[in-house]
Structure formats: structure tokens, C-alpha cells
Design brief:
The chain is mainly alpha-helical. It has helices spanning about 10-30, 35-45, 50-60, 60-75, 95-115, 120-140, 150-155; strands at about 80, 90-95. It comes from Suipraeoptans intestinalis.
Length: about 180
Amino acid sequence: MREERDSIFMLFHQIHNLAKYYGMQELKSVRLNPGQAGILCVLQKEEGISQKDLSKRLGITAPSVTAALKKLETAGYITKEGDGEDLRITRILLSEKGREQAKLLKNANKKIEDAICKGILPQDKELLQNMLIRIRGNLMETKELQGMSVESVMYHVQGDAGCRGCGPAEGRSHQK
């Protein structure tokens, strides 16, 4: 019989923390914090996203996104421009320097995934990925998480101060 520390739940918990720590060490090499890295990752795929949609996509508050964007803009990684049709909307774009930084970040992410999957055959990696997607889906189908998005759950778990009073019972206010 396996030890309790090797239960599936504990393994997920351990792997999460090990990967997070390793990832934070890698982020030091590209001189970004996790929030800034998340923003660059999203912009790499969805350049021109609105600040409001970026906040929703990352599952963090608008003030937190604003603070991170200010630092990225000061560092020269992003530019902001108004939306041509709706002046209330601010679009976020990568600068050339930001594109270079995003490439470094992509390489760091690949290094992290390579470390995680070292010694795992490609077909087993695909199987693992499919199983993890299914596990995520299983959890999202529980009554406690029904109607929430992965992003909103992450928002609550991170304990963001801008949660506007949402507790476990009220958590459904942060939907997709």
C-alpha cells in the first residue's frame, strides 16, 4: 500500500508547488514576476486584447492588471492604445522589446515543461495531458465549482485582495 504522501491529491499538491517554485526561478532569468509573465503570454496569443478582457482572461482584478501593465509599459514591453470604436476601451500591444521578452519567456516555459516531462515518452505525455484535462473537467463539474471558470477559481485561490467580498458561498459571482 502506498503512503499517504503518495496519494493522488498529495502528488498534485507537491507537483504544483515544485513546478511553481521551479517556474519562479526560471522567471528570474527573464526578469518578470508571474503576473507580468502571464500578461505577456496572453498578449503573445491575443495581442490587442482589451485591459478588461485581459483581467478576465487571467482571473485577476483590474487594479492588479493596471499595476502590472504600468510596470510593463515603463520597462518598454507594452504599449497601450485606445479602441477606434469605443473610447472607453484600452487595447494592449506588445512592443518590439516585449516580443523579444515574450520569446525568452516562451523558451523558459519550454524548459519548465521539458523538466516536468523528462523521461516521459511522447505518447505517454499526450496521455498524461488528456488525463489532466479530464481531471480538471471532473473538478469543474462538482457542485462547489459549478458555474465558475478555471480563471475565477484561480482568482479565489490566490486570495486576491480585490475580490469584492466574495466568499465560498458567493463565489459564483465570478463566472466565465
